[in-house]
C-alpha cells in the first residue's frame, strides 16, 4: 500500500475512534442520565492510545490530531446526549431523534446543558491530548 493511502487510512481510523468514543459516552449517559463531562479527560487518554496504536506522527500534526480527537468526541457526544434527552421520553431512538432534532435546537440544548466548568474541562482535556500527542 502506498504511503499516502496508509496515511489517509491512519487518520480515518483515528477519527473513527473519536466517533466510537462519543458513542460510548452517549451509551454511558443513556444508562446513568448524567452527562459526565469528566469523560473528556478519558477521551484525551484515548486519543494518545489511538495515536500510538495507529502510528500517528508526533509533532505538530499529532498535537492537532489529539486536540481534534477530543473536540470531535465532545461535540458528537453533546449532540447525541441532547437527542437522547429529547427523543428518549417520547419513544424515539437515537437516529430518529437526531433526524428530528435539527441543528438549531441541538445547539440550544447543548448551550443550556454546558456551563463554564464543563467548558473548562473540555478545553483542558483538548490541551492535554494535544500536549501528550505532540511527544518529544
Describe what this molecule looks like in 3D.
The chain crosses the membrane at residues 12-32, 38-56, 68-89, 109-133. Keywords: Membrane, Transmembrane, Transmembrane helix. The longest helix is centred in the first third of the chain and has 30 residues, at 3-32. The protein has helices spanning 3-32, 39-54, 60-87, 94-101, 103-113, 116-134. The chain is mainly alpha-helical. The protein has one domain. It has six helices and no strands.
* Unreliable residue runs: none
Q: How much helix is in the residues?
A: over 70%
Tally of strands:
0
Strand content: under 5%
Q: Give the oligomer, counting copies of the same chain as homo and different chains as hetero.
A: single chain
Q: Looking at the structure, what is the overall shape? A: globular
Radius of gyration: 16 Å
The helix count comes to 6
Give the termini distance in whole angstroms. 28 Å
| Count of discrete domains | 1
| Series of H and E elements | HHHHHH
Structural class: mainly alpha
Amino acid at each position: 500500500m502506498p504511503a499516502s493511502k496508509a496515511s489517509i487510512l491512519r487518520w480515518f481510523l483515528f477519527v473513527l475512534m473519536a466517533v466510537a468514543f462519543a458513542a460510548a459516552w452517549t451509551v454511558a449517559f443513556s444508562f446513568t442520565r448524567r452527562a459526565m463531562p469528566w469523560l473528556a479527560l478519558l477521551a484525551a487518554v484515548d486519543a494518545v492510545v489511538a495515536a500510538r496504536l495507529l502510528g500517528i506522527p508526533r509533532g505538530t500534526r499529532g498535537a492537532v490530531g489529539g486536540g481534534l480527537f477530543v473536540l470531535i468526541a465532545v461535540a458528537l457526544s453533546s449532540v447525541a446526549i441532547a437527542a437522547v434527552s429529547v427523543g428518549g421520553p417520547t419513544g424515539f431512538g437515537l437516529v430518529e431523534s437526531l433526524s428530528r432534532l435539527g441543528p438549531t435546537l441541538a445547539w440550544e440544548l447543548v448551550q443550556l446543558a454546558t456551563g463554564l466548568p464543563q467548558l473548562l474541562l473540555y478545553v483542558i482535556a483538548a490541551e492535554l491530548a494535544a500536549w501528550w500527542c505532540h511527544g518529544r
